[in-house]
């Protein structure tokens, strides 16, 4: 007993002394790395997992040539945290912002630096006007686009299509006819979909609607819809809902491999990849990035699926009303600088060049809309195709509408509306509810 | 005073002992029944199933996990340690899970010790040093518990990075955070600050219950505040301190928000890498099951080794009088 108390008597002051020492050590450390001229440029963004590793690697050559180290840190809740960090005065050197809407609110804090002339020239040269406009606010150009993904793909199995003797459709009517044919031939539903994505549940549905608005009503109406001039209750938007509803609300056509119409809401958006790969789901609508989800799936025979136009899995662009229509919806990120440091500016400039795009595309899994980049470097036939579509001069590219709308609608009532719509709420009520998001 | 003979006392104690035993038996009979035991076991099993499923998933090959449920292992067993290996070595961000595991320890241990050190001193002062406005100050400190942590993030971060200047006088110069790559100080301070109201409240309630006679006796013997605090208060308050330490450690260990906001990129904790493991589109979600079990080890060790304090300490601060 007395032994124990004596030991304790010693322990307690020691613990205090230790705590104090740690505090002091920590303070000293935080002021250690200062100095002039940044040797390590910090980038943060929402990209995580294997894509984050590849992003870090894409700067290897740059570091060798210039001696500037680049460190990317991914954060899943980036969209929320970056606003806190920037307002708190602790912004990273560079942020990779996935939504033009978020970019605008960051610019609003006054911390974002305008892009240099070199970056601006690169964007003029290598990207379309549409892309530059998304990085511009109030006539000033801030952020160059980085990578891109193409929305509005329909993933299918070329092998199964051959077995059923059907072809890739060229128009929307052909797609509906194809849906019917597959249902008759396979005896089951022909589409699958998954809207579940935690707090963001419903976003895969917004992509469906946006694709249809862009194809049926055209890019101009799409722009007006994004800016709020065309309301959700407008007949043109309702038409898009009705067209999507022909497939997604029809119990005969969905939800292949999962259950009935309502199971769309309980299926995670990435899980559909496994069902497309093993052949139990003939078609699903998702962006180009779904290709990443096929890496860990198996075909019915147990092998890894081959993503090729003659393989197990491939995708066609959702057709428009007429054959050969070239309006596509895309998503992408923007490189936003928060520092005037010469080395930081060098990194930003490098990221807008075709050299960087090539370095990153070569590492696999992604595509760039940079017109100077070489599509043949992409890691699969599918990604090469995607890149060509994005780079092509006759493709009209429109950014994901829900990312452009105000957050209360784009990542609020629109997402929620899609979930309710699948749950059976009448279309008119859903449209009125989504529109009401503008008043929040 | 009426004198009571010894046998009388003995009889009385024997009687009361018998009475106590009878009551114990009664209570046991009332409180336990086979049905209740079975129900408790069934509930325990049902509650454990999701964790068990996650545990099984962490040992299944990724391709299996994304195409079939974990329960299929019973008919079609196939296990691998790959998930644990790739979870530890690939972080899905600038750090690997292994590196951030060390960071988590470096954050959680000081972030537990600092608030205890400060709060036990403050609690002693609030309980045993009479000064003007003591109760108001105590209530004010505890009232801060109401302020949601999210509201304090931006001001605190701004204080750290920009400092505080009032009317041209630099009250606090601020740290040069933008150039710091590896530093824990801000996270420690943030955690300590956010923990303070509850820590002071809990420890105060416990320390104020220590009989005043003991402290008076110590004072008569010539002990000052320092001696009273280190030799009497700290040893006696150990159960409360330990139970708060468990709370605080688990809270800091599981924290994602505070660390993501305050820690520089090389000092991010385990929760941050765990969150990033699945990748942008969630394609590698099965790695998270392995990562979750790696991260759960430390809280389990802490909890089981301090468990006896936990039960005692929980009641310690809770009831007064």
Automatic annotation (TrEMBL), chain A:
The keyword 4Fe-4S does not apply. The keyword Signal applies. Transmembrane segments: none annotated. This is Extracellular solute-binding protein. Belongs to the bacterial solute-binding protein 1 family. It comes from Schumannella soli. Residues 1-25 form the signal peptide. InterPro entries: Bact_solute-bd_prot1.
From TrEMBL, chain B:
Signal peptide: none annotated. The keyword Methyltransferase does not apply. Keywords: Cell membrane, Membrane, Transmembrane, Transmembrane helix, Transport. Residues 101-306 form the ABC transmembrane type-1 domain. Gene3D superfamilies: MetI-like. The chain crosses the membrane at residues 35-56, 105-129, 136-160, 185-207, 228-253, 285-306. Pfam families: BPD_transp_1. It is a multi-pass membrane protein. InterPro entries: MetI-like, MetI-like_sf. GO terms for biological process: transmembrane transport. GO terms for cellular component: plasma membrane. It is found in: Cell membrane. Belongs to the binding-protein-dependent transport system permease family. This is Carbohydrate ABC transporter permease. The lineage of its organism: Bacteria, Bacillati, Actinomycetota, Actinomycetes, Micrococcales.
């Amino acid at each position: 007993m007395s032994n124990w108390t004596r030991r304790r008597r010693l322990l307690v002051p020691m613990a205090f002394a230790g705590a104090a020492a740690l505090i002091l050590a920590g303070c000293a450390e935080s002021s250690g790395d200062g100095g002039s001229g940044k040797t390590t440029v910090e980038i943060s963004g929402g990209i995580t997992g294997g894509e984050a590793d590849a992003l870090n690697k894409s700067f290897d050559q740059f570091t060798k040539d210039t001696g500037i180290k680049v460190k990317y840190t991914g954060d899943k809740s980036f969209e929320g945290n970056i606003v806190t960090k920037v307002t708190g005065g602790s912004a990273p050197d560079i942020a990779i912002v996935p939504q033009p809407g978020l970019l605008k609110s960051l610019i609003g804090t006054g911390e974002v630096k305008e892009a240099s002339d070199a970056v601006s020239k690169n964007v003029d040269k290598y990207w379309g006007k549409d892309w530059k406009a998304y990085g511009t606010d109030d006539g000033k150009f801030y952020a160059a686009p980085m990578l891109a993904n193409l929305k509005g793909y329909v993933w299918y199995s070329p092998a199964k299509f051959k077995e059923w003797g059907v072809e890739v459709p060229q128009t929307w009517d052909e797609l509906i006819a194809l849906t019917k044919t597959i249902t008759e031939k396979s005896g089951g539903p022909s589409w699958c979909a998954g809207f579940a994505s935690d707090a963001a549940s419903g976003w895969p549905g917004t992509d469906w609607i946006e694709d249809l608005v862009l194809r049926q009503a055209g890019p101009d109406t799409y722009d007006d819809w994004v800016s709020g001039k065309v309301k959700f209750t407008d007949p043109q938007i309702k038409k898009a809902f009705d067209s999507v509803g022909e497939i997604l609300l029809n119990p005969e056509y969905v939800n292949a491999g999962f259950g009935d119409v309502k199971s769309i809401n309980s299926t995670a958006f990435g899980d559909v990849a496994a069902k497309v790969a093993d052949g139990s789901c003939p078609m699903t609508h998702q962006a180009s990035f779904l290709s990443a989800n096929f890496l860990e799936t198996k075909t019915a025979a147990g092998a890894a699926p081959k993503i090729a136009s003659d393989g197990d899995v491939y995708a066609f662009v959702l057709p428009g009303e007429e054959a050969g229509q070239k309006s596509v919806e895309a998503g992408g990120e923007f490189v936003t600088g928060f520092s005037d440091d010469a080395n930081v500016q060098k990194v930003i400039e490098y990221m807008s060049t075709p050299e960087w795009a090539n370095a990153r595309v070569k590492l696999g899994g992604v595509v760039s809309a940079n017109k100077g980049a070489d599509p043949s470097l992409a890691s699969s036939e599918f990604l090469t195709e995607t890149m060509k579509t994005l780079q092509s001069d006759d493709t009209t590219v429109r950014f994901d509408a829900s990312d452009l709308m105000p957050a209360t609608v784009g990542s609020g009532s629109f997402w929620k509306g899609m979930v309710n719509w699948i749950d059976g709420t009448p279309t008119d009520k859903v449209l009125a509810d989504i529109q009401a998001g503008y008043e929040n | 005073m009426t004198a009571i003979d010894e046998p009388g006392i003995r009889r009385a104690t024997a009687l009361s002992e018998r009475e106590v035993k009878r009551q114990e038996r009664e209570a046991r009979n009332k409180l336990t029944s086979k049905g209740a035991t079975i129900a408790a076991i069934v509930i325990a099993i049902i509650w454990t199933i999701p964790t068990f499923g996650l545990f099984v998933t962490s040992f299944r090959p990724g391709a299996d996990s994304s195409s079939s449920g974990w329960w299929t292992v019973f008919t079609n067993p196939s296990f691998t340690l790959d998930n644990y290996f790739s979870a530890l070595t690939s972080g899905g961000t600038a750090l690997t899970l292994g590196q951030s595991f060390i960071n988590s320890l470096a954050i959680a241990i000081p972030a537990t010790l600092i608030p205890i050190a400060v709060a036990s001193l403050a609690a002693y002062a609030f309980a045993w040093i009479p000064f003007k406005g003591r109760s108001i100050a105590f209530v004010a400190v505890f009232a801060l518990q109401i302020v949601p942590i999210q509201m304090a993030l931006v001001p605190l971060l701004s204080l750290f990075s920009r400092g505080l200047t009032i009317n041209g006088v630099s009250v606090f110069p601020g740290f040069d955070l933008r150039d710091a790559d590896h530093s824990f100080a801000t996270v420690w301070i943030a955690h300590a600050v956010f923990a303070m109201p509850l820590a002071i409240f809990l420890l105060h309630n416990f320390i104020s219950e220590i009989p005043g006679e003991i402290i008076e006796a110590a004072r008569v013997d010539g002990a000052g505040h320092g001696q009273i605090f280190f030799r009497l208060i700290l040893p006696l308050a150990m159960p409360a301190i330990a139970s708060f330490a468990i709370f605080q450690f688990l809270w800091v260990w599981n924290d994602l928000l505070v660390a993501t906001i305050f820690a520089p990129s090389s000092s991010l904790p385990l929760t941050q890498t765990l969150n990033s493991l699945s990748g942008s589109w969630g394609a590698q979600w099965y790695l998270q099951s392995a990562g979750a079990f790696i991260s759960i080890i430390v809280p389990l060790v802490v909890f089981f080794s301090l468990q006896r304090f936990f039960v005692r300490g929980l009641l310690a601060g809770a009831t007064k009088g």
